[in-house]
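Record format v2
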Amino acid sequence: MDAPPTVSFLSDYGRADEFVGVCHGVMLRIEPRLRIIDITHDIPPHDVRAGALALARAVQYLPEGVVLGVVDPGVGTDRRPIAVGVEGGFFVGPDNGLLAPAVAMAGGATAGVVLTSEHHRLPAPGATFDGRDVFAPAAAALASGVDLGELGDAIDPLSLQPGLLPLTRVEAGAVHGEVLWIDRFGNVQLNIDPEELRSLGLEVGGVAEVRIGESTRPLRWVEAYGAARSGEAVLLVDSYGLVSVAPNQGSAADELGIRPAQA
Amino acid sequence: MDAPPTVSFLSDYGRADEFVGVCHGVMLRIEPRLRIIDITHDIPPHDVRAGALALARAVQYLPEGVVLGVVDPGVGTDRRPIAVGVEGGFFVGPDNGLLAPAVAMAGGATAGVVLTSEHHRLPAPGATFDGRDVFAPAAAALASGVDLGELGDAIDPLSLQPGLLPLTRVEAGAVHGEVLWIDRFGNVQLNIDPEELRSLGLEVGGVAEVRIGESTRPLRWVEAYGAARSGEAVLLVDSYGLVSVAPNQGSAADELGIRPAQA
Amino acid sequence: MDAPPTVSFLSDYGRADEFVGVCHGVMLRIEPRLRIIDITHDIPPHDVRAGALALARAVQYLPEGVVLGVVDPGVGTDRRPIAVGVEGGFFVGPDNGLLAPAVAMAGGATAGVVLTSEHHRLPAPGATFDGRDVFAPAAAALASGVDLGELGDAIDPLSLQPGLLPLTRVEAGAVHGEVLWIDRFGNVQLNIDPEELRSLGLEVGGVAEVRIGESTRPLRWVEAYGAARSGEAVLLVDSYGLVSVAPNQGSAADELGIRPAQA
């Protein structure tokens, strides 16, 4: 059997309002066979950086099809609503850096359009709700087989607003990283690849001196969350291959006073 | 391909308990082809007014099929469990005003029953969980093609408990409205149609004097959320065609001390 | 039409991160026809007892197929990742007591394996995310028709880690129970079957003296939530057949200072 057409959907809409359900309704009216994966809708409101990172972490695990991302503080301004084609699918959303890291992980955009076609939009009675009226209809149209070119005017796929991927900084033999993500279990993911540590002659193992804010503390490297002693924060290479500070039954973030960097 | 049968589901069950998943299971055991849209399940517990308004906002965007709404403070009392037919589908839920505004937007009920058929209920071991035992089975039965009349005794579709749709009040040339909804982004939707303002000779544009509680403040009309200056609350016609007070990156509700009216 | 293969999924992943969406993606890449029921993902982090109880309450309402449960404080330690066969389906998850009560309610395990097959795992770049890399792939494989025996080495199905099902204690003619669950509506489910009360000559009706912590108070038995007077906490047999303390429009737990027992 053929796989049904798929839209994987991420937003900052939350679940308390009916925004997500309405976008599902809009898409299923256009493409009744559609299967929708809700990646998450609890990106903090307007936090493009957090949305872009979540999308980049998720994208390699999604089925082929359309990725719909909506974190859009500039709705109604002149930021471009876009769709881009990649190997095996499409990305739809605002051109504000939300999609760019995931698009890059999917091999880069091969084509792009600004979503200007009135035929593939819903009429809005007042201020714009582009998720409902522009992005969801475009995603469903692409999933149902409509050509990318029918959705609007072509743009240079290289003109996408880049995402801000934070870089590490090396100083006096130490790597200065940044917090990418604090998850539900209190794990703190950093933008540090263990290879970078090794290339500087630093060990990924034993005990490392970690400076957080104004204080430095020794943290033990472990291979699994369960290897930490009760109440001990540890270092490990997480399931995305990045260095994380992990709590043991608690929140490393709370314990150590860590907050994600701001975009 | 035929569209699969669809149930669009709204409740105040939240997501922390397994209530929503259990209702999905009950429906899919009855109709395995079913597609379920979760409109939202985070209506505040027992808030029939908030549920009715969310359903009314969503209904025009849902596919044809069955709408299942469960916000039911009177479960186990003598409020009627009902199903009504409309053009293109059915509504199922308690007869307490939750469904009425959405039924009206769908063109009004053409037929109705009280859900008395034991054959289409699950046996309950104790106090009633009507979402699981009465409403979900009825919704799945209707979606699978069972006749409305088989689910129970016919009622006059005009006998539905009406929803309380708040009216505006005009006094001394000013329109007194009510807060319908405060969304995740802090936007405050009022029950005021911009046409009503225009019909009174009030401008929908420029700067308006808005009284909130005991204080009056000037708010600027804008056409898009993004047109507000940093930290400025503004007025706009929202994506449902109603007047809203919108914050810029924050919560208008928090800033201005606004709360939704109580049912 | 044949029912599509089904996975019913419960976890403590929450919805704020993309964990649930990623597991959906992993499963749908393996079995595109799959239908996924999200039982709940808001089990408190690492609370195996709460997860086991929710799964046991839900299981009788789920369609045939695979049940995937992931509440896994011991991820990366030597607790076993398992799949077991029952009449009409399979259970997949960690062998830590999470699955055992639901497996028992489904008639008991007839076969079991430890999930050791590399062929049915995703490669992990660092510390384990077994939900994504081990359990979701196994659940999807079983749903798609792969034989249980292909997923790993057979284990004695009777060797499953039992769940801790709390027992009541009878002393001086009184039944001492334990709080199993406090739901969104503030209802407090106890591990007391009304038959146990009757067998001791206690009445399920009238007014009962209930001791909570250090204080005793009279609570009235009712048959439906709606039969309580405003602000009155009551006793009833709930929709699972167990004794519950129910608030009337509020939280019995908050009112009476009740908290769930710890595992």
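Helices of chain A lie at 19-30, 48-58, 100-105, 130-143, 194-199, 252-256.
The domain at 6-155 of chain A is CATH 3.40.50.10790 (Rossmann fold).
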